[in-house]
Amino acid sequence: MQNGEAMSPQDSKAAGAETTEEQKAQSQSQNQGGVEPTAPPLPPPSPPPSGPPEYPRPRLIFHTQLAHGSPTGRIHGFTNVKELYAKIAEVFNISPSEILFCTLNSHKVDMQKLLGGQIGLEDFIFAHVRGETKEVEVTKTEDALGLTITDNGAGYAFIKRIKEGSTIDQLKTVCVGDHIEAINDQSIVGCRHYEVAKMLKEQPRGIPFTLRLVGPKKAFDMIGMRTRAPKSNEGKMVNGRETLRLRSKGAATVQEVQNEFEEQATKKVDDLLESYMGIRDLELATTIVEAGKDKKNPDDFAEALDSVLGDFAFPDVFLFDVWGAIGDVKNGRI
Predict the structure, then answer these.
(1) Residue 314 scores a pLDDT above 70
(2) Once rounded to an integer, what is the mean pLDDT over residues 277-306?
(3) What gap in Å lies between CA 37 and CA 51, rounded to an integer?
(4) How many angstroms separate the CA atoms of 272 and 259, rounded?
(5) Do residues 158 and 165 make contact, with C-beta atoms less than 8 angstroms apart?
(6) Number of separate helices (H) and strands (E) present in the chain
(7) Which of 102, 118, 140, 287 gives 20 to 30 Å between its CA and that of 262?
(8) What is the secondary structure of 99-138 as a DSSP string?
(9) Calpha distance 261→294 (Å, rounded)
(10) Mean pLDDT throughout 53-76?
(11) pLDDT-derived band at 43, boundaries 50, 70, 90
(12) Mean pLDDT throughout 61-78?
């Protein structure tokens, strides 16, 4: 072909085929000489998934039964109380709304064994489900009814303690473990325990009001029992050296059992919660202690507490008492 002459499509195709054969020959020659062929380029990385990140579900396996009697089930992969109830309900083919609360290592309505925000790795979980519904008329004769309220972390508030000699103590149909479903026909399902305690405190003296209660279903050998919470060692609920810490937000974590300082401080804060708010809540008390144990002054403590529990709007006098109690435990004065 002379310079300046146009190449026909047939000539171009032939030249392309010729070049291809040359490249193949060169490639074979390089391979025979020990030269490795070049690897193909890697595909581009996949884009990150949209939406919030999924928290890992711990693969720890726990054993569970219905407290009034059932076969033993196995559950795992939960990171908060609502998911725990859903897992238990799935095992026993019931609705999660049927579960009032859980106890650890005891099928009895024993508030010393109440499941809070932590489960020992060797603990056996008993689920207490809805039983008898009852309505009780109550008339306040003094400001306090004598009730301590807690909740299951999934929308049900229930009675954790009844003070001896109190107004409620006179009503023998009201028992520890009863779920408070309504006050004067107003449903309180979904309310937190401190909200229910506030409603009860606001009931006027001398004017009757109605409580609709749901008791936990009991086995035959438990019928007729009116369980009281023990006055000492309340909240000691783990056997193993490690616990699964359930959180309302974020992933569940495995952590060491509280040390002696944290355990004593948590107990003191739980006592103060009952004194000021009429509630007991070990998870809440644990969170308060964690917020205050490393702080240098009450202002820093109040700021840290407000960042994690601002919705509670704790009064200043409560915060100072809590700060004092943590300091007393830390310095060995208790």
Answers:
(1) yes
(2) 84
(3) 42
(4) 20
(5) no
(6) 7, 12
(7) 102
(8) EEEEEES-SS--GGGB--SEEETT-EEEEEEEEEEEEEEE
(9) 12
(10) 82
(11) low
(12) 93
pLDDT digits (tens, 9 = 90+) for 142-175: 888 999 999 888 899 999 999 999 999 999 899 9
Ramachandran bin of 250, using left for φ above 0, alpha for ψ from -120 to 50, beta for the remaining angles: left
Closest CA to 246 of 62, 60, 81: 81
Alpha helices in the chain (DSSP H): 9-32, 81-92, 193-201, 260-277, 282-292, 298-309, 316-330
Which two structure tokens, joined as six digits, stand for 97?
């709304």
CB 230 within 8 A of CB 176: no
Contacts 24+ apart (CB under 8 A), 105-109: 105/239, 107/65, 107/67, 107/68, 107/69, 107/219, 107/222, 108/67, 108/222, 108/225, 108/227, 109/67, 109/175, 109/176, 109/177, 109/216, 109/218, 109/222, 109/225, 109/227
Per the structure block, which two tokens stand in for 168?
């409620």
The DSSP secondary-structure symbol of 178 reads -
Number of Cβ within 10 Å of residue 120's Cβ equals 18
Q: Which two tokens mark 222?
A: 């438990």
User: Model confidence over 16-32: pLDDT tens digits?
Assistant: 444 444 454 454 444 44
Contact 292, 322 (CB under 8 A): yes
Instruction: Please tell me the distance from the alpha carbon of residue 176 to that of residue 172, in angstroms, as a whole number.
Output: 11
